[in-house]
Amino acid sequence: QVQLVESGGGLVQPGGSLRLSCAASGSIFRSYAMGWYRQAPGKQRELIAGISSSGSTNYADSVKGRFLISRDNAKNTVYLQMNSLKPEDTAVYYCNAERKVSPIRNYWGQGTQVTVSS
Asked: Where would I find the beta strands (DSSP E) of 1-118?
């Protein structure tokens, strides 16, 4: 059982930066892929960044070149560095952990609000 807690959200001006953290209660050393999703009001939740247990990363086109996902397995934490923020980045951001060995399971954090506004 893995519990996830996001932090680091808040209000930031366009062009600014923010770093989100996701702390896992259980070990995510090598058995879990991690991802960041976001959901704006009235919109579907979308995957914006993912990182595999081996360190491979992928990004949505909308954030590619601006956001960076990383993980620190020793600290059981995943991060999302968000740069050059735009108003359209405003959303609730969620951390996700996917167990890659049987049984396959998914865990979600409670979400953290990111608002980009001048």
From this structure: 4-7, 10-12, 18-24, 32-39, 46-51, 57-59, 67-72, 77-82, 91-99, 106-108, 112-116
